[in-house]
Amino acid sequence: MAKDPDISLDQIIKGLAPKVKKVIQENSKRLWEHTVSRYLAGGTSADRLARRSGTLARSTRPLSVTMEGNKITGGLGFSAQYAGVHIGPTGSQVTIRPKNKKFLAIPLPAAKTAAGAARDGPLDNIWGPTFIAKGVIFGFKKGTKKEYQSPIPLFVLKRSVVVPRRVDPDVHLLNWIKPQFIADLSKVAEAGL
Q1: Is 139 within 8 Å of 128 (Cβ atoms)?
Q2: Digitized pLDDT (tens) for each residue of the chain, 193 residues in all
Q3: pTM reported for the whole predicted model
Q4: 158, 103 contact by CB (below 8 A)
Q5: Helix segments in 40-157, DSSP class H
Q6: In this structure, are residues 193 and 1 in contact, taking their beta carbons and an 8 Å threshold?
Q7: Would you kindly state where each structural domain of the chain is located, as residue ranges?
């Protein structure tokens, strides 16, 4: 209990709130660093994404800690539009379908950068003249420097693709941060009482 019996419960809560906010802020930052370095930086595997353009990693940020009433919130935010494709329950999948066209154009190695990101779209001029045969878009230029005599395959056309979710917020993120978060909150509670 409080050392001074005149201190009300509201005063104790007001004294603990800034300390709890600090714990949430520190753990949100710790979770962000762990997520970017462990799950968004390596080769693609069951629980890891290769960094191609770096957009998902750059858009991942610790949320600002806020207090509304007696509720304090913080955490991790993914602002890339496609984050929901890769981040979700383990074992779940997302089916991607074209929005305005009949097919998706999936880049083949000749149409990718060294990091694996598409150089440009199939309708861009950097490929020179293009044509479609058996569901593949062929062109005569690889990137912007070299011109070929025979056509090279650039994109494969698909009606849809299924992408497995690789980073599970509960299994990979919350279960990792929870022990340290609880320990930090326990220290604050013990010091505050």
Answers
A1: yes
A2: 456 555 666 777 777 888 999 999 999 999 999 999 999 987 888 888 888 888 899 999 999 999 888 789 999 999 999 998 999 999 999 999 999 999 999 999 988 888 888 888 888 888 888 899 999 999 887 655 666 678 889 999 999 999 999 999 999 999 999 999 999 999 988 876 5
A3: 0.77
A4: yes
A5: 55-59, 83-86
A6: yes
A7: 9-90+165-192, 98-159
